[in-house]
Design goal:
single chain, 454 residues, alpha/beta, Immunoglobulin-like, Rossmann fold, 3 domains, 10 helices, 30% helix
Length: 454
């Protein structure tokens, strides 16, 4: 290809000089000689003239003109293109460098007016918008010297949090409470406080990625609390055995779900309501379900059990709690007198943050004539890897019918969490968690708080 190009260039250059007896006309650089008019013209025009002449006269002038014009034009064009490439490269590099520098400077907190300290005033909330106390808040970013930083704090009773002397710029803030989390980009300007506390800007944890399963029970109804917090859940059965010839109840669904570790693993949180589930299981079913629950928690999932569903705790996690009475019997702990109100001590820091004090009123109601559980499960002391949040003096039943008051168990554990290294969390409450009009403000706060600890 190179040889052909050279030959063509030599031929075209020879045609730039007219052949004949007169002195040859010499054209300046960038021009070609028209062999008909003996006039030097621009290369591109020569191409057009050559084409026209060639077409009209059917001679070699056409080829000559084409070769001359094309080669000259192509070379010139190529050179021009090279110049364009140089220009484009320069422009692109300049544009890219400018864009990159602008982006990097922005990311590295170069704000109009310079980089300096600012602040954040924020509030964490549940998906429903309710304040979220004792939630963890993590702020991450790049300071004015280009060095990464992170600051962590905990929300107060009203879900509020404050950061002062934060480098201006673009940062990431993450609110976490149990299995629930939310992250967002936040901009801090020098000398200003960024608002994340108003109704339109507060940071609410997201629930879409947290799957919740519930086993319904005769005496409790955590579903009402979940609904009030705008949390979606799947009811995977209940504790009601089908009646002969009439059917009904979803006991079989509960057994199938709790006996299937793969089905359970699809959920982040499992609630087992206080009810008759344990008593309606066969010995073989109990063994299978206990093993499934243990596997479920060991895989990092969270379990919540209330009141008389305590045999699931007693058998699956025997080191978690020492229940009142004989642990060899499944209902030995069902001895708490009802109704009674307990002035509980608030032991843990998160619960103190929630309530803003170290005492709380815990209610154990009894609706006579409508329910048969006129007693509740009493947990005497906490075991290994267990944190007591609430404790108080529990009055026991004075007789088998629990119609009279008996002795008192001092400092009974009313609300505990249990977590081993690498495992999920288990929460047990001696009290119920269904919403009742008689429950005081403490109870409502505690019940909602517990959901976001799982």
């Amino acid at each position: 290809m190179v040889l052909v190009a050279v030959a063509c260039l030599s031929w075209a250059c020879g045609d730039d000089v007219r052949k004949g007896g007169t002195d040859p006309v010499k054209c300046e650089a960038g021009q070609t000689l028209n062999p008909i008019t003996n006039v030097c013209i621009d290369g591109q025009q020569s191409n057009n003239t050559g084409n026209n002449t060639g077409n009209n006269d059917n001679n070699t002038g056409n080829n000559t003109g084409n070769n001359t014009g094309n080669n000259t034009g192509n070379n010139t064009g190529n050179n021009d293109n090279n110049d364009n490439n140089t220009t484009n490269n320069t422009t692109n590099n300049t544009a890219n460098n400018t864009a990159n520098n602008t982006t990097n400077n922005t990311a590295n907190n170069t704000q109009p007016g310079g980089c300096g300290p600012g602040g954040i005033n924020g509030r964490a909330c549940a998906p429903s918008g309710d304040v979220l106390a004792a939630a963890e808040v993590l702020l991450e970013g790049i300071d004015c010297d280009g060095v990464p930083f992170s600051h962590q704090t905990t929300t107060n009773t009203d879900g509020g949090f404050v950061y002062s002397d934060i480098p201006s710029g673009q940062h990431t803030i993450t609110v976490t409470s149990g299995s629930f989390e939310s992250s967002r980009i936040v901009f801090v300007n020098e000398g200003q406080v960024t608002d994340l506390a108003s109704a339109a800007s507060k940071v609410c944890v997201e629930a879409s990625s947290v799957k919740i399963a519930v086993i319904a029970g005769a005496y409790d109804n955590v579903q009402g609390i979940l609904t009030s917090l705008q949390l979606e859940f799947d009811t995977k059965g209940d504790d009601v055995a089908p009646l002969p010839f009439f059917g009904g109840g979803r006991l079989a669904e509960s057994v199938n779900f709790l006996s299937n570790p793969t089905a359970m693993a699809a959920y982040n949180i499992l609630f087992i309501n206080c009810g008759e589930l344990w008593r309606n299981l066969t010995a073989a079913q109990r063994t299978t379900i206990v093993n499934s629950l243990r596997t479920y928690v060991q895989s990092g999932k969270s379990l919540y059990v209330s009141d008389r569903a305590n045999p699931f705790i007693l058998r699956a996690f025997p080191d978690m709690l020492d229940f009142h009475g004989d642990d060899t019997t499944d209902n030995g702990a069902w001895a708490g007198f009802a109704p009674q109100n307990i002035a509980a001590q608030v032991i843990s820091a998160p619960m103190q943050t929630l309530l803003g004090r170290n005492t709380a009123q815990i209610q154990f109601p009894h609706n006579g004539g409508t329910v048969v559980n006129n007693n509740w499960a009493v947990a005497a002391t906490a075991g290994l890897n267990t944190t007591v949040h609430l404790q108080g003096d529990a009055v026991l039943c004075g007789n088998a019918e629990c119609s009279t008051q008996g002795t008192t168990v001092p400092n009974a554990a009313l609300l505990v969490t249990h977590q081993q290294a690498g495992s999920g969390k288990v929460i047990y409450t001696s009290f119920h968690n269904k919403s009742q009009a008689t429950y005081n403000e403490d109870m409502i706060k505690i019940m909602r708080f517990l959901i976001f600890q799982l």
